[in-house]
Specification:
The complex is a heterodimer of chains A (about 500) and B (about 475). By secondary structure, chain A is of the alpha/beta class. Chain A has 19 helices and 9 strands. Chain B has an 8-stranded parallel beta sheet with strand order 3-2-4-9-8-5-6-7, with helices on both faces. Chain B is of the alpha/beta class. Classes of the chains: A alpha/beta (about 500), B alpha/beta (about 475).
C-alpha cells in the first residue's frame, strides 16, 4: 500500500509538472521519447503542396498557369495521389495529357463548395405552423394543481417493485426546473434520444430501454453505499429531439443541461449518440464558466473529427467543444481509444491542444491499473469540476454488443466500474453522459445491464463523496475483507467442521 | 408494440399538420359527437373567453393535438374557477403560437462550406482517371460458370459502374442500392442493399410463371448511390439525378432503399426522363406518406404527398395499396380522394376480400398513365412475413396476396421503375424479411420477363404448373 501511495504521489506531481510545462513542450517530449518525428503545426486546414518532379516540368509547362497552380496547391491530391498522377503523366502527351489534367481539375472543383452552385445550408420549412412543435412544452396548467417537487408515483408504502412506471434508477420523476429546485435534487437523470449516429442506429430507444431494465439504483457492494438512499435522484424525462437534424437538436439539449445545472442538480444525460457531448459541455460551462470543467472522455473513438460537411455529428463533438473554447484541450483526458482513427497527424493535433489520451495501446503496454491511476490523477488536477462523457463502446463488444459503432479489444466491466466509481467519488462532478446504447442489437439485454451498472457506479461515487468517502480508491472494509486482520497474530485456523453425511436434498437446500 | 407508438409520438408535428389540413377542408378527423355543447353550468366560466379562445375550444380538431376533446375539457373546466379556465385556454393558445417559426429560430441548418469534402461523396469518377482501361459493359464478378457464392451482387448480376456500361450492355433492368437511413421508425435501412445482395430469393424462376427473369432479361447491378445520412435534403438531388440518368438509358431502375423518403427523388428522377403525366405510381405501404405539412422539406411521411403537390404525379395516376395504422387518418385519406387518388386500405380488404380489391387495383393502374412505377415499402406486408422493417404495422398483406399482384402489375403494365424500401436487417434475425423482399422483386422481374415474351394475358399462370388436365 505504501509503495502504491508513493507512486501515486509521484505520478500526481509528474502530471502537474507536465501540465504546467505547456502543450508544445509536452508534445515535443512525448514525440521525442517515442522517436516519432511529427510537426508541431496545426494542420487543421493545411493541404500538402505538390512538387512537380524535374523530369515532368518541361512536359507540364504547356499547361495554363492556373491549372498548374491548382495541381501544385495540393487541392487535387484528394482525388488522385501525386505519385500516381506523375506515373500516369509520364505516359501521356498532347490532348491526352490535357484531358487527364482537366479531369482531375474538374473532379476537384466539383468536390469543393462553390458559392452560387451549392447551397451553404439546408433550408427548413419555416412556413410550417408546426415548425417548433417537436420541442414545444406541454403547459403545466393542464395537470392538476400540485406542489413543486419530484412526483410520488408509488402505489404502496412498503414492499418491492416501486410504482410500475419505469424510470432511471427507480428514481421518482420530475417535470419542471421548479420541481428540481423545490425537491433540492442532487442528481437529475435525463434521456436524450438523438439517433443520428453513423453506425447501427437505434440510440433513439436507449433511454427508454435503460429505464425498462434493471441494474441502476440500489446498494453498491464495493462502497457499501446506496445512492438512492444518500442522494435525491430524479428522472427528468427525455429532452425533445429533432431526429432529422443533429444541428437543431443540440441547441435544445444545451438549454436543458444549462437549466438543470442552474437548479444545483447534477445533470446525467442518457443518450442518444455521442454528438451530445458538445451541447452537454456547452450547457454545463454556461453555468460553471468556460475552462472550469475538465472532461474524461471514455470512448474507442477520439471524436475530434473536423473538415466535414456537417458541423456536428457523433464523430466531431470534441473538436467543437475545444474550438469553441468551452473546455481547453489540456483539460481533456481520453481513455480507451482504439478505433482506426486518429491518424498520426491528428494525434499530433491532440497533443498540440494539450489533450491527454490513454489508448488501449497504452493499456496493452502498461496494464490497466497503471493507466487508471494516471487517468484519475490527470482528471483531478485538470479543472475545478469534472464532466464524464462515457461512450459505452469503450468497453469490449463482449460486454457492450449493442452499440452503434463497436470496436473489439476494449475495457472489461471489472476495469470500467472502478474508474467510474473513483472518478465520481474523487472529483466534484459537474455532470456525466452515457451514450450510444442501441437496444435493437441487444438481444440478451446485457448491454443495458452493464450500462445501468456503470450509471450506478457513478451514482455511488457521487453518494460516497457526499458522505466524505473521497480517499483514493476507497473500497468498503466490510465488503472487501473477510474480517479485519489482527495486527500480529496469524489468522485463526478455519473451524473444523465434519463433512456432512450423505445429505438429504432438503438439508442441502437449507444450507444454501 | 410500444416502440411503434413512440415513433408516432415523435411525429407529433405530423399529427398537428394533419389536423391543420383537416381544418382547412372542414373535415374533422376525430369529429366530436354531433351536438356536443359545453354544459350550461360552465357558461359563466366560459363567458370570459375571447372570441378566438372560444373558437379554439369549440374546434375538436385543434383540441385533438393536445389530447383533448370538448368532453375532457369540460371536466377540466369544472375543476377550475373562471380565471383558471381562462389561463388554461390561454396556455393552449400559447402552445399553438410557440409552435410556429419565429425570428431567431434556426430556419436553416448551416453547413461547413470550408470542408474539403463538401461534395466529394457525389463526384463521379471519370473513366479517364481509371488506372486501367476497359471496354464499357457490365462485368461479371463470378470466376466459375455455375457459381452460387462469391462476391455478392443483386441477382448475381454483372456489375455496371457507369452509364456507358448500361448502354453498352443494353441493360434492361439495373439494380441500384441507396442506403438512406432516416426512417422515422427503426433505422437500419442502410444495411438493406448489402443484405439483399447476400441473401437468396432474387435469382431464378418461380413455379407460378415458369419464367426465369435472370435468363430472359439483361440485368446489371449498378452499385450504390452515394447518400448523406445526416441529411435527406442533401441526398435527394443526387439521387434524383442518378435515377433519371439510369432511366435515360432505357433500363428500368430497380432501386433497393433506403427508406420511404426516397420515393420522392426516385419517382421524380424517372418523371424527369419520361415526362410529367407519363408515369403512374403504385404505392404498396401501410402508410400513405402524404401528410399535409412538415418542418423539414423531405421525410418518409411526406414523400408521396410531395410528388402530388409538385405535380410530378397526378392524383389520378396514384394508387395506394395496404393502408392501415395510425398515420392513415381520415383527413389525409379525404384529401387524397379529393385529388383523385385511389386507395385501398386493409379495412377494404377485410370487408371485400383480397381478390376483388386486387382486381380493382389492377384495373385502376392499367387505366392510368402508360409507364408504371412500383414503390414497395415492406411495411405493406404483415410483420409475420416481414418483421425486419423500419415502420412495421400489424394486419398487413401476406406474401400469397402481394406476390401475384406484383407479378401481374409487372406483366400487364409497362414498368418504368421499382423500389424496394425500408428493409431493416437488424430486426430480421431469420432473414425471412430479406428473402421475402427478394421474392417480391423476383416476382416483378418475372412479370417483366413474361411481358417481354408476350405472355401478358391477365392473370397468366404457367399451364404446366396448374397440373395435368383431368
Amino acid at each position: 500500500m505504501g509503495d502504491d501511495g508513493d507512486m501515486a504521489l509521484r505520478k500526481k506531481a509528474l502530471a502537474a509538472v507536465l501540465l504546467a510545462s505547456g502543450a508544445m513542450l509536452l508534445a515535443g517530449v512525448a514525440a521525442q521519447s517515442q522517436g516519432v518525428p511529427i510537426s508541431g503545426r496545426d494542420f487543421t486546414n493545411a493541404i500538402e503542396p505538390v512538387t512537380i518532379p524535374d523530369d515532368l516540368k518541361a512536359k507540364l509547362s504547356v499547361l495554363p498557369k492556373d491549372k498548374l497552380e491548382l495541381i501544385t496547391s495540393g487541392r487535387t491530391s484528394r482525388y488522385v495521389r501525386p505519385e500516381r498522377m506523375f506515373t500516369k503523366l509520364r505516359t501521356l502527351s498532347g490532348p491526352q495529357l490535357t484531358a487527364y489534367i482537366d479531369a482531375i481539375i474538374s473532379v476537384t472543383e466539383a468536390g469543393e463548395y462553390k458559392a452560387g452552385r451549392d447551397k451553404p445550408s439546408i433550408a427548413l420549412n419555416t412556413k410550417s405552423p408546426t415548425f417548433n412543435a417537436w420541442k414545444v412544452q406541454r403547459p403545466q396548467t393542464m395537470n392538476p394543481k400540485r406542489e413543486d417537487g419530484p412526483l410520488e408515483l408509488g402505489k404502496y408504502i412498503g414492499g418491492f417493485g416501486g410504482s410500475g412506471i419505469p424510470t432511471f434508477a427507480n428514481a421518482p420523476p420530475a417535470l419542471t426546473y421548479a420541481d428540481l429546485k423545490a425537491g433540492k435534487v442532487d442528481v437529475a437523470i435525463v434521456g436524450a434520444p438523438l439517433d443520428m449516429g453513423s453506425g447501427w442506429r437505434d440510440a433513439v430507444h436507449g433511454p427508454v430501454l435503460l429505464r425498462a431494465t434493471g441494474g441502476a439504483g440500489g446498494n453498491d457492494m464495493y462502497s457499501m453505499v446506496n445512492p438512492n438512499a444518500e442522494l435525491k435522484i430524479v428522472d427528468f424525462g427525455d429532452i425533445a429531439m429533432d431526429n432529422l437534424s443533429t444541428e437543431r437538436s443540440v441547441h435544445h439539449v444545451r438549454e436543458v443541461v444549462r437549466e438543470i445545472a442552474k437548479t444545483g442538480a447534477i445533470p446525467i444525460v442518457i443518450g442518444g449518440d455521442h454528438s451530445l457531448e458538445y451541447p452537454n459541455l456547452a450547457g454545463i460551462t454556461d453555468v460553471h464558466g468556460k475552462g472550469n470543467v475538465g472532461v474524461v472522455h471514455f470512448d474507442s473513438h477520439y471524436d475530434a473529427g473536423r473538415d466535414r460537411v456537417h458541423l456536428i455529428d457523433h464523430g466531431q463533438p470534441v473538436y467543437r467543444v475545444i474550438s469553441e473554447g468551452h473546455v481547453p484541450g489540456k483539460n481533456y483526458v481520453q481513455v480507451g481509444l482504439r478505433a482506426r482513427g486518429p491518424d498520426a497527424k491528428t494525434f499530433q493535433w491532440m497533443r498540440d491542444q494539450g489533450m491527454r489520451y490513454h489508448t488501449m495501446v497504452d493499456v496493452e503496454r502498461r496494464g490497466w491499473d497503471a493507466v487508471m491511476k494516471d487517468a484519475v490523477a490527470e482528471a483531478k488536477v485538470s479543472a475545478k469540476k469534472l464532466w464524464i462523457s462515457f461512450d459505452i463502446d469503450v468497453l469490449d463488444p463482449a460486454f457492450m454488443p449493442a452499440t452503434g459503432t463497436p470496436v473489439p479489444g476494449g475495457l472489461t466491466m471489472r476495469e470500467a466500474q472502478p474508474i467510474m466509481r473513483r472518478l465520481c467519488a474523487e472529483n466534484d462532478i459537474a455532470g456525466i453522459d452515457i451514450v450510444e446504447y442501441a437496444p435493437y442489437l441487444d438481444t440478451s439485454y446485457k448491454t443495458a445491464l452493464n450500462t445501468n451498472f456503470l450509471l450506478n457506479a457513478c451514482l455511488s461515487g457521487i453518494a460516497m463523496r457526499k458522505k466524505g468517502l473521497t480517499q483514493e480508491h476507497y473500497l468498503s472494509p466490510i465488503s472487501s475483507m473477510d474480517r479485519p486482520a489482527p495486527a500480529a497474530s496469524p489468522p485463526p485456523p478455519p473451524p473444523k467442521t465434519p463433512l456432512p453425511k450423505a445429505a438429504a436434498p432438503v438439508a442441502k437446500g437449507a444450507r444454501r | 408494440m410500444s416502440a411503434l407508438s413512440r415513433h408516432m409520438g415523435r411525429r407529433v408535428g405530423a399529427r398537428l399538420a394533419v389536423c391543420a389540413a383537416a381544418l382547412m377542408l372542414g373535415l374533422g378527423a376525430q369529429a366530436a359527437p354531433k351536438g356536443f355543447e359545453y354544459p350550461a353550468s360552465l357558461s359563466a366560466k366560459l363567458s370570459g373567453l375571447t372570441p378566438a379562445e372560444r373558437a379554439f375550444i369549440d374546434d375538436p380538431v385543434k383540441l385533438e393535438t393536445f389530447g383533448l376533446t370538448p368532453e375532457r375539457l369540460s371536466l377540466e373546466f369544472e375543476k377550475r374557477d373562471a380565471a383558471e379556465v381562462k389561463a388554461y385556454v390561454a396556455s393552449l393558445l400559447t402552445v399553438v403560437e410557440e409552435s410556429k417559426f419565429h425570428d431567431g429560430d434556426m430556419g436553416e441548418l448551416p453547413l461547413n462550406t470550408e470542408a474539403s469534402s463538401f461534395n466529394s461523396g457525389t463526384v463521379l469518377r471519370p473513366a479517364i482517371l481509371d488506372e486501367r482501361t476497359r471496354d464499357p459493359g457490365p462485368i461479371s464478378l463470378q470466376r466459375y460458370l455455375h457459381q452460387r457464392t462469391g462476391i455478392p451482387t443483386f441477382a448475381n448480376a454483372p456489375v455496371a459502374v457507369r452509364k456507358e456500361d448500361l448502354v453498352a450492355g443494353k441493360v434492361e433492368v439495373a439494380f441500384v442500392g441507396i442506403p438512406l437511413d432516416m426512417s422515422s421508425g427503426y433505422r437500419d435501412a442502410k444495411h438493406a442493399p448489402t443484405t439483399l445482395r447476400i441473401t437468396d430469393g432474387l435469382v431464378g424462376s418461380d413455379v407460378d410463371a415458369q419464367v426465369d427473369p435472370t435468363l430472359v432479361l439483361r440485368i446489371a447491378d449498378y452499385g450504390n448511390i452515394s447518400i448523406d445520412n445526416m441529411s435527406i435534403e442533401r441526398t435527394q438531388g443526387h439521387v434524383r439525378f442518378m435515377i433519371g440518368d439510369m432511366a435515360s438509358t432505357g433500363a428500368v431502375p430497380f432501386i433497393v432503399g433506403g427508406d420511404r423518403a426516397l420515393t420522392y427523388p426516385d419517382v421524380a428522377g424517372v418523371v424527369d426522363t419520361l415526362g410529367k403525366g407519363k408515369v403512374a405510381l403504385v404505392s404498396f405501404s401501410a402508410h400513405p406518406d402524404a401528410i399535409a405539412d412538415f418542418d423539414h422539406e423531405l421525410v418518409d411521411s411526406i414523400a408521396v404527398g410531395r410528388l402530388l403537390t409538385e405535380g410530378l404525379i397526378e392524383g389520378k395516376n396514384l394508387v395506394q395499396i395496404g393502408l392501415r395504422g395510425p398515420q392513415a387518418k381520415a383527413a389525409d385519406l379525404q384529401r387524397l380522394a379529393s385529388q383523385g387518388v385511389r386507395y385501398h386500405t386493409m379495412a377494404e380488404v377485410e370487408k371485400s376480400g383480397w381478390e376483388p380489391v386486387m382486381a380493382k387495383a389492377l384495373k385502376e393502374v392499367t387505366g392510368s398513365a402508360e409507364g408504371v412505377f412500383i414503390s414497395f415499402d415492406m411495411s405493406v406486408l404483415d410483420p409475420g412475413d416481414a418483421p425486419g422493417v423500419g415502420r412495421p404495422a400489424p394486419g398487413g398483406l401476406t406474401m400469397r396476396e402481394a406476390t401475384p399482384l406484383v407479378r401481374r402489375l409487372c406483366a400487364e403494365t409497362k414498368i418504368v421503375g421499382f423500389e424496394m424500401l425500408d428493409v431493416a436487417p437488424i430486426m430480421d434475425p431469420t432473414y425471412k424479411t430479406a428473402m421475402n423482399a427478394n421474392r417480391i422483386m423476383n416476382a416483378c422481374l418475372a412479370g417483366i420477363a413474361l411481358r417481354k415474351e408476350g405472355l401478358t394475358k391477365p392473370g397468366y399462370l404457367a399451364p404446366v404448373s396448374l397440373g395435368a388436365k383431368r
